[in-house]
User: Fold Zinc-binding dehydrogenase from Haloarcula marismortui.
Amino acid sequence: MGTGPTRSLPAVSLHVPRYENHIRSRADCGERFCRYRLTHTAMRAVRFHEYGGTDVLRVDDIERPTPGPEEVLLEVEAAAVNPVDTYFRTGDYEPGELPWIPGSDCAGTVAATGERVASVTEGDRAFATGLGNWLQGTCAEYVTVPESHLARLPDGVSAEAGAAVALVGVTAWQTLVDACSLEPAERALIHGGSGGVGHVAVQLAAANGARVTTTASPAYHNQLADLGADDVFDYSRDDLADAVVDAGAPDVVLDHRLDDYLAFDAEVAAQGARIAAIGNTDLAATFENVPRCRAKALSVHHVSMFNTPEFGAVLSRLATLMADDELTPVVARRYDLAEVPAAHDDVRNDSFLGKLVVTP
Ligand SMILES: NC(=O)c1ccc[n+]([C@@H]2O[C@H](COP(=O)([O-])OP(=O)(O)OC[C@H]3O[C@@H](n4cnc5c(N)ncnc54)[C@H](OP(=O)(O)O)[C@@H]3O)[C@@H](O)[C@H]2O)c1
Assistant:
């Protein structure tokens, strides 16, 4: 949605007091009206003022942020919804001082740049992540982004695709490439291949020349094979461990449900395997046979996407893969700002392949 002058008038009168008594209509204001259009600074943003359920989310009219010297103001065309948005909303993770704008990634057009920004200029298309945690989030018409947290979006790649790939793509990169050093011809096991992280990790591992085993509900098996998975198994089958080992013991495992699968991972893993641990439903996860882990020389890497040292550098690599058609994020559903509460519900409770995307 745009920021047309009619809808923004009440907020404008707050921010541009010089003109508030003079604006009567487009016809009789002439130049003054144009001046107003250039200076108004309102935007719509989803915010929560207290922690809680989806009912704490509301759309507020607030002042548009101003970029600092090393920041970029992005006009948001698309923002993605991630499970972590719901952890911040409930207060399980504390994002910063309330009220808070949820959303950790987005894509759009550069509307302004700080004086020390060199990599993008006004009008460039860019995508970003690492937001929504200490830095206000992306479910808004505009967001300020540190230059280090964004990269240019290639021509031909949509803003929805950029938003859909950003957080999960950086997560897949930090786990498979950075933490686990996945090499061509190695075998990767991606649990939950239909998820936001999973469907990008499958493509990244395949693009890296690895052989890919993934697990998912049967409805998604054909699509995951199309995305590059060599072997796809129903995660609820009783003989899952046998099926995974028969396909090839994994050298690298991406595990988003550690409490369910840590012992399983150790059991099926190849000698010297690396396990990337990104998520859990219960707090505790255990190995059932520690000596066997030792004998296999297993390593476990706990990864938080928010610890990525240089988001923009990883996003640039993902941009290249998208431009080369080696990475195609899937947008499962779209929501407007008022529907973000439903999107938070869906990301936790519904089944879909790919990503949920908000278009302000
Ligand atoms: N550490 C980090 O930096 C980081 C970054 C991103 C995400 N995460 C965490 O990683 C997890 C996944 O994130 P996401 O964005 O991919 O979430 P998502 O899009 O909701 O995907 C979750 C996937 O898990 C699948 N699943 C459900 N039960 C399963 C089971 N028993 N075995 C295997 N797969 C199962 C779901 O499939 P169905 O649809 O068939 O149920 C779905 O495809 C979340 O806990 C998230 O918080 C961590």
